[in-house]
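Exercise 7.
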Amino acid sequence: MPTGPKGQKRPADAIGLAVMIGKIATGEQDDTVIDDGKDPAAKALGAKGGKKRAENMTPERRAEIAKKAAQKRWKTSG
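Solution. The predicted structure, written as tokens, is:
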């Protein structure tokens, strides 16, 4: 689905997008009002999660996880 400059959800169909742009241009709808249904506090904490987890891990453990992920990613399906 197309997203705005700040990651907001946008209508995928041309007519829905045109209607939305018209409403934004006339001030009928604010550009950032689109609700994704998620709790803003939970989103803020979730954004910090991976970084905090990496800070708490040893470099050896991070390397282990990275190697395992690379092996899974490049594993042949045959």
